[in-house]
Amino acid sequence: PAGYELGNIIHQSIEKLTKANQLNQINLDNELSKYQNQNPYLTLELEIWKKKLTKFITIETQRQKQGYKIIETEKPFNFEYQDITLRGVIDRIDKKDNSYTILDYKTSSSLKIDTIKTYEKSCDFQLEFYYLSQQDKMIENVGYYDLNGAKIKTEIMLNEKIDILKYHLKALKTTQVNFEMCDNKNTCTYCPYKIMCQK
What we know:
It is a single chain. This protein is α+β, with helices and mostly antiparallel strands. It is built from six helices and five strands, in the order H-H-H-E-E-E-H-E-E-H-H. A five-stranded mixed sheet has the order 1-2-3-4-5, with helices on both faces.
């Protein structure tokens, strides 16, 4: 889908320029223009993103002035937690003084962070995985870098969600499965047993 391709293009462009220490508006515009030449269907969307990313470049300049340095991009991790192997790739790790911020780039316009009202029903533990993989560091923040609005959305319910994650991972190790029908039909949408259940 075009949205997925667009997100990848933006992500790859930012990563490439960050690694080369050449992240600025001119270079980012030029990088995105290369993709416009390759795929004319994305010309308009990439032109819009060039404008949107001016705020991102401004925020990046401010972060540099505040003492933040990008020390890792596309950092792979592979570790065991609760006897389950977790692996993935962290988009970016920043360092300021002796503390670290883990960031994951997002281009979605509907990006939301769990709140005290929503975290208990959350199915999104991506930031928790990132945090747990880097526990040897002093992690100050873990968050999504909302490229659409040029904001860092910090995971505010981190510890509470780690507790929920532990519960879910423990459930994965069970030797017995409860096949009773559930009350919430929304669960059925992605349930692999819905044919057997026939709810």
